[in-house]
Amino acid sequence: MNDLELLRSVQEFLYREGEYLDGQRWDDWLALFDPEVEYWVPAWDSEHELTGDPMSEMSLIYYRNRSGLEDRIFRLRTGRSSASTPLPRTTHLVSNIRITGFDGSQCQVKASWVVFSFKDKQSHQFNGRYEYVLAARDGDWVIKRKKTIVINEVIPSLMDIYSI
């Protein structure tokens, strides 16, 4: 796979992830993650510094494996997340996708993102950066690590896995 083919396959993968979230295709979305994925949304420690250790510092969201994500989806599906009922309509936009490392089986990726959401006659947007570690598996990618940096974390609405 040359550099352009690698970039295109990663772009297509990240666009697909957004499509699954926007379509609330939860099983398809979960299938993108390795069972041992680390899913982390760090908090801001100061105006320009993020927390650095999800085990000892504040995080906005942290799951050390896919079972945390599966539990979150269960709550969304069953209405056990009253703050997420009804779910907002969302649009994920991903851009500035850059491959920052590739060893033939794993790929480090950075990207920028914006998510627009609409619920209860109000629109909100979140934006930030993604950092991924993707692993090649069966001709596609799986997410081994996803770090989501939310630039505007002080928000007037709920932030959840579908809104970032």
The largest sheet, given as strand count, sense and whether it forms a barrel, is: 6 strands, mixed
Give me the secondary-structure category: alpha+beta
Radius of gyration: 16 Å
> Mean of the pLDDT scores?
94
CATH architecture: Roll
Shape: globular
Structure in words:
- With 164 residues, the chain is α+β, with helices and mostly antiparallel strands.
- Helices cover 23% and strands 43% of the residues.
- A 6-stranded mixed sheet has the order 2-1-6-5-4-3.
- A hairpin with a 2-residue loop joins strand 5 and strand 6.
- The longest helix has 20 residues.
- The protein is globular.
What's this, in brief?
The chain is α+β, with helices and mostly antiparallel strands. The chain is 23% helix and 43% strand.
Keywords:
6 strands, six-stranded mixed beta sheet, alpha+beta, 164 residues
Give the SSE map.
Layout lengths: L2 H20 L3 H5 L2 E10 L16 E5 L2 H13 L10 E14 L3 E14 L2 E16 L2 E11 L14
Parallel strand pairs: 1-6
Antiparallel strand pairs: 1-2, 3-4, 4-5, 5-6
Family: Belongs to the bacterial ring-hydroxylating dioxygenase beta subunit family.
GO molecular function: dioxygenase activity
Keywords: Aromatic hydrocarbons catabolism, Dioxygenase, Oxidoreductase
